[in-house]
Amino acid sequence: MLDEAYYEFVDPALRTESMQWPSQYPNLIIARTFSKAYGLAGLRIGFGVSSPEVADLLNRVRQPFNGNMLALAAAEAAMTDADYLAETVAVNNAGMAQLTSAFKALDLPWIPSSGNFVSVDMKQAALPLYQALLQKGVIVRPVANYEMPNHLRVSIGTQRENQIFIEL
């Protein structure tokens, strides 16, 4: 299983053209989603690419009516809206630069990311920071469950939202 949920955020020069791989590797499934760059998370819509044999096996066990008409229509519209996708990626790239520049200025290490979030090492226990930010209406995610007790996972927001996080 190759999860390409953040594919659209990866620098095009660094992308691999994986969609042909199932013909070379018949047991491979490639999954993509409309939840991230396309902004359709609430509709739970995505797609998979596999060999016909794997698709046949999956169709035998999938639940009936696993996609709805609204989600399918939204995904179809999203696939044709290149301007929206380009703007989303541009806002994400600018937000990533804004946050990582602030982390650098604050001497806080971060994990390089090609997604719509970045994990930053707060150099102290992250849970109390998470709780304090939550009290101020800023939602981030502690990631101690990934054995990173000092890290916060910060979703990229608008310039203003990112600035509020930085200033707190």
Strand content: 15-25%
| Integer-rounded radius of gyration | 19 Å
Distance between the termini: 39 Å
The proportion of residues forming helix, as a percent range, comes to: 40-55%
Q: Count structural domains.
A: 2
Order of helices and strands: EHEEHHHEEHEEH
User: What is the assigned CATH homologous superfamily of the largest domain?
Assistant: Aspartate Aminotransferase, domain 1
The overall pLDDT, averaged over residues, is 94
- Lateral arrangement of strands in the main beta sheet: 4-5-7-6
Q: Architecture of the largest domain, CATH level 2? A: Alpha-Beta Complex
> How many strands?
7
Low-confidence stretches: none
Largest sheet: 4 strands, antiparallel
CATH fold-level topology of the largest domain: Aspartate Aminotransferase, domain 1
**What is the overall silhouette?**
elongated
- CATH class division of the largest domain: Alpha Beta
The computed structural class is alpha+beta
Q: Number of helix segments?
A: 6
Task: Summarize, please.
The protein has 168 residues and is α+β, with helices and mostly antiparallel strands. The chain folds into 2 domains: 2-80, Aspartate Aminotransferase, domain 2 (3-Layer(aba) Sandwich), CATH 3.40.640.10; 83-167, Aspartate Aminotransferase, domain 1.
Task: Describe the model.
It is a single chain. With 168 residues, this protein is α+β, with helices and mostly antiparallel strands. The mean pLDDT is 94. 41% of the residues lie in helices and 18% in strands. The chain has 2 domains: 2-80, Type I PLP-dependent aspartate aminotransferase-like (Major domain) (Aspartate Aminotransferase, domain 2, 3-Layer(aba) Sandwich); 83-167, Aspartate Aminotransferase, domain 1. The relative contact order is 0.12. It contains 6 helices and 7 strands.
